[in-house]
């Protein structure tokens, strides 16, 4: 059985999370967090595990939300919100690290902060783009780099949530789409 071009699509295309800028940045945040924690925080510390898990949660919830979006925009929106909340928790952990170690938290106009933020425009950015800032620099630079990356990721997630909200309000969810499709199919059968 093949789909006709005029038949309504009940489950729209979904997934494709690897193409989302938010996911790409969350993956960089996760990789950087693992390296930072292994370098700067004792593996026996509960904080080490919590930071790595918060970073992982940010990345994984974006992917899971994207995959669920075909049948539940509401669930996708919820999972993107969970990703955002996890990264906010991680942000606070990095800020706590700097404060507790007596290190400087860069403001957004700090020259190094601007330099790190500018790297996001690299076409093929990945963890490697930021590696020297995280692996080869003083912990103050590494933590502040991670903070910059989290801020950028959170900005992208905020934009994504606004777009999902608009789409949900305009198109509705799966149940509404199911109802519309059922009505369209009934109407087609009536007029054949």
Could you please describe the fold and organization of this structure?
With 192 residues, the protein is an all-alpha fold. The protein has one domain (17-190). It has seven helices and no strands. Helix 1 runs antiparallel to helix 2, helix 1 (21-40) packs antiparallel against helix 6 and helix 3 (73-100) packs antiparallel against helix 6 (139-171). The longest helix is centred in the C-terminal third of the chain and has 33 residues, at 139-171. The protein is elongated, with a radius of gyration of 21 Å. It starts with 20 loop residues before the first helix and ends with a helix. Residues 1-5 have low confidence and may be disordered.
Strand content: under 5%
The quaternary state of the protein chains shown equals single chain
Cα(first) to Cα(last) distance is 19 Å
Structural class, please? mainly alpha
Q: Count structural domains.
A: 1
Number of DSSP E strands? 0
Low-confidence parts lasting 5 or more residues at pLDDT below 50? 1-5
Radius of gyration: 21 Å
| Average predicted confidence as pLDDT | 86
Protein name: Four helix bundle protein
InterPro entries: 23S_rRNA-intervening_sequence, 23S_rRNA_IVS_sf, 4helix_suffix_dom
Organism: Candidatus Desulfatibia vada
